[in-house]
Amino acid sequence: MKVLVTGVRGQLGFDVVNELEKRGHKSIGVDVEDMDITDREQVSLVLQRVKPEAVIHCAAWTMVDAAEENVEKVRLVNAVGTENIAKECGKLGCKMMYISTDYVFDGKGILPWQPDCKDYKPLNVYGKTKLEGEFAVVKNLEKYFIVRIAWVFGKNGNNFIKTMLKIGQMYDVLKVVNDQIGTPTYTYDLARLLVDMIETDKYGFYHATNEGGYISWYDFAKEIFKQAGYSTEVVPVTTVEYGLSKASRPYNSRLDKSKLVENGFELLPTWQDALIRYLKEINNGTN
């Protein structure tokens, strides 16, 4: 299968291309230098030339706080860019997979969000524009996967783990929020699931994170330092006490993944196992 992957220089796109190639698929990875998704004509030219059988759309504006001050730029990337790709996929009759986020919900309550829940109430610009991207996919296509993920970490780019490791070397004590709850997602594991999915026609909305239970950022930070052998002390604080963020974050990022099992897909390993493998990878260059 010939698959075009956007955002190849990002954490997830990088791993998706590698996974496709491992399985013998023909992958075409593009980033903004190769195809500016906000340029409708450029998207049309590239996709018409490549003629993919599927598109896995990983490219996005993901800087949540910066999004609050760059509303139109973010909408252009996350909403208009996604619509450009969806329309072209419709013309070609190819599958499309859109990577979305738990931020399309308001994060209230303690129950896990269901993939087919339509109670959308994003709290910030990032969530609103990613939701607009979802609407664009649904409006223009029948053969689509919308996969919501959360708390992503991978080899490429910055993430929470890399940040903790960096500042954990600089400070003896760190404050980390303990009232935002979710589950981390390792892009290496997620990429395998996404390719499993794109090889099928089991379309629809899905949620995907690693297994291992729901935790807070505080819990995650403690485990990172434990696995890395750091003596850094982690102090739990509320989101309000921590402050600083320009964008509001959801407190409840719990995602229900039972639909994956119902459709015959294998769940991801635990986040604890993923963390161990990830630390080895960034330290030794192996997975």
Describe this structure in words.
- There is one protein chain.
- The protein has helices at residues 11-22, 40-50, 64-67, 71-92, 125-140, 160-168, 187-198, 217-228, 239-242, 258-262, 271-284; strands at residues 2-6, 26-30, 54-57, 95-101, 144-149, 152-153, 173-177, 181-182, 185-186, 204-207, 215-216, 233-237.
- The chain is α/β, with parallel strands linked by helices and 287 residues long.
- The chain has a 6-stranded parallel sheet with strand order 2-1-3-4-5-10, with helices on both faces. A two-stranded parallel ribbon has the order 6-9.
- It is globular, with a radius of gyration of 18 Å.
- The model has no long low-confidence stretch (mean pLDDT 94).
The gist of it:
Helices cover 42% and strands 17% of the residues. The protein is of the alpha/beta class.
Topology (SSEs and partners):
Elements: E1 2-6, H1 11-22, E2 26-30, H2 40-50, E3 54-57, H3 64-67, H4 71-92, E4 95-101, H5 125-140, E5 144-149, E6 152-153, H6 160-168, E7 173-177, E8 181-182, E9 185-186, H7 187-198, E10 204-207, E11 215-216, H8 217-228, E12 233-237, H9 239-242, H10 258-262, H11 271-284
Parallel strand pairs: 1-2, 1-3, 3-4, 4-5, 5-10, 6-9, 7-12
Antiparallel strand pairs: 8-11
